[in-house]
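Checklist before submission:
- one chain only
- standard amino acids only
- sequence pasted in full

Submission:
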Amino acid sequence: MKYAFSVIAICAILFTGCKEIKELPGSYEVVEVNGQDISGQGVTLNIKMNDYGNRIYGNNGCNEYGGSITTDEEGKVTLGQLLSTKMYCQEKAQLETKFMTQLNKVDQYRISDDLLLLLDQNGNIIIKSKKLDE
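Returned file contents:
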């Protein structure tokens, strides 16, 4: 009996330690772009879906960006034209360009545990984002 309780307790701890994503809308920290770790660089991605429209927006390391987003049940993603502010940040210019270039290539998404994976049309993961506590 003690053994069964211990196994159940360990499983409960393991499964509650990770925050699994159950739906697409939310706030995310972008942790990888095209295989490069960018954790802690201030790149964010937010998705809101409601009666007023579906929006994607965030910070690309220097500037704020935003646009429309549509999805379907199969994980297909279509982004509208993305707009951004135009500040120049010399130390983040390459990061900003890389992120925005890859974001414009997004064709589909997948949810894996606590990660939002954005993929190109060939199914390659180009952006990994971790869900933030809300």
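Reviewer check: The chain has one domain: 21-131.
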